[in-house]
Amino acid sequence: MNDFTASTGHTFSERTAGVQVTAPGVHPLVNAKSQVGAAFKEYADHVRSTARAEEDARLGRWRWPENPDYVVYQRDAYPPENARRVRVILEPTGDFVDTVEGSTIDGPFKDAARAYFDAHPDPKPWYDAGPAEVWDVDLPSGGMRAVTVYSARHEDEPVTVFRDAHTQVEIETDDPTIRDARRIYPERTV
Predict the structure, then answer these.
(1) pLDDT, tens only, 92-110
(2) Which residues pair with 61 in a beta bridge?
(3) Which of 11, 59, 94, 156 makes a 20 to 30 Å CA pair with 107?
């Protein structure tokens, strides 16, 4: 018996009497003669979508969920402001537009680029905070002054956290509530 789980969560199990299709939260749909065509079409669609997602990941491209004909590739930063830059390609025609974050081009190329930037926010400098560094962290609830970076474990996974020595409060370095942070020690050299 071979089982296949598509990226959509559907599980397809080969049985001696046909194919059993199981969707998350749905009772299993077992093939009968009238359901064979529909089950195999759904199976083929899920295999195609999974293969496409794997190929996109391998090629380093992002596919716009609203219109999958548009794919986005991240490009080198654009001087002088080091703006994030992407190439948006309409796959069926090969037409493309190179654009930077916040540009004013119109149409679906801009919409695909904006969706990419929304889905891939610019990483913040504190995301790369390292052990034994000291940071000044700005939170909506008030700043954490002179916090030290530690390696910790959360749900059995290694994480990097800011730890306040006085309150013993810990917050992960990639916590979305952090508004800003500045490394105090060691000082950055330019």
Answers:
(1) 999 999 998 888 778 999 9
(2) 73
(3) 59
Whether 45 and 68 share a structural domain: no
129-157 pLDDT, tens digit each: 888 888 888 887 776 666 778 777 767 77
The span from the CA of 50 to the CA of 37, in Å, is: 20
Alpha carbon distance 126, 137 (integer Å): 9
pTM value? 0.53
User: What is the C-alpha separation between 49 and 122, in angstroms, rounded?
Assistant: 28
Report yes or no on 156 lying in a domain.
yes
CA 67/CA 171 separation, integer angstroms: 37
**Domain-embedded: residue 102:** yes
Bridge-based pairing state of the strands 29-30 and 18-22: antiparallel
- The two tokens of residue 63 are 């596919």
Residue range of the domain that includes 152: 126-185
